[in-house]
Amino acid sequence: MQEEQADARVVESQQGRVLDGLRVIEIGHFIAAPFGARVLADLGADLIKVEPLDGDPVRQWGEQPDGRSLWWSVHGRNKRCVTLDLKSAEGRALLLDLVEKSDALIENFRPGQLEKLGLGPDVLHARNPGLVIARVSGYGQNGPYRDRAAFGVIGEAMGGLRYLSNQPPGPDQPPPVRVGVSIGDSIAGLYAAFGIMAAVWQRDRAKGDGKARTLDVALTESMFSMMEGMLPEYGRLGKIKQPTGGGIATAAPTNAYPTADGEWVLIAGNSEPIFGRLATLIGMPDLPRDPRFAGNAARVANVVALDALIAGWTVRHDAAEAIELLKGADVPSSKIYTVADCATDPQYLERDMVREIEDPLLGPILHPGIVPYVPGDAASIRWTGPEIGAHNDEIYGELLGRSPEQLDALRAAGAI
């Protein structure tokens, strides 16, 4: 199977990538802007990542066999990495030369930091009037919180997610739990990537306006925008949406249910036909006619009793057996996956979402595949996260035309 997938990728590589020809500069750090940049790089953009001389701090995060970050292998993949001291005049001059040859720039410094460096949007646009700039920050480029420090977890808290990601309120309520990954950063990065493509499209399409645009993406607003009906329900009804644990406040049954072997199976039976099939499967075909469960609103109101009936069925089966029975009844279901489950799942493997990649610094390593999948496109993992400054000579020498002597002088001055 792996050989067939590899052959398919070779064929695809002859067809071009969807973002071939788009050049984007990343001067982000940690997660938000670099994640958005990786999405663009995976789809074929020429992504030039500008790092300080000691590299992006994420190079030091996560598990570190032989002192090399496994996460960085993914986080920095498909990017050409250069070092640059933006506090030096030589470093700023090099960045502006790169700007002149690029379509877009993505950054996630604190608001005002680019301006302090003498690299604000006015300066960047003076060098390249068509440059699209995506600025990612905690609270946005203006407002009373503009200058506060923030990371993704702050965006998750202020955006409303952290309050909701918990069990329902109770007397021994633990602190609201984290989702498990830096979801606030990643969603802000996705918004930035989408904004870049929208702005480039408007600039370059046949009847486009040819204008540059500066995008302002806030971590807090990115999370707040994901909160479904939470705000209109508060505005009209005064309702404060509460945590619901594993369930959904607006639909039932949808929850995780225990199994005989100590696993959990997630079942989503929240439409009338599906609920009917689920009721028949668990040996209670009359449930849809029970006034407590006749219609979604009634099921939501009586969800505790309904979940107990479903759990009484699941707990009599091992997880694998329960999944097979639910699949046979055409009821949406899944066990709660660990990464080991993800890495061996036939659906992920068939769609090349789990790939074994040869990292020259780490050896064989598993990478997640590329999202979105574009049939017929040649998007691929062209290389893994490179060493600090791995592409300095290639970018500054070949792209910007600096001579070997000039590059040596820049190194001696500490500019690159």
From TrEMBL:
List, alphabetically, the InterPro entries matched.
CoA-transferase_III_domain (IPR050483), CoA-Trfase_fam_III (IPR003673), CoA-Trfase_III_dom3_sf (IPR044855), CoA-Trfase_III_dom_1_sf (IPR023606)
Looking at the keywords, is Transferase present?
yes
UniProt KW Transmembrane keyword: no
> Molecular function (GO) terms listed?
CoA-transferase activity
Pfam families, A to Z: CoA_transf_3 (PF02515)
The UniProt keyword set, sorted, is: Transferase
Protein's name according to its UniProt entry: Crotonobetainyl-CoA:carnitine CoA-transferase CaiB-like acyl-CoA transferase
* Originating organism: Hephaestia caeni
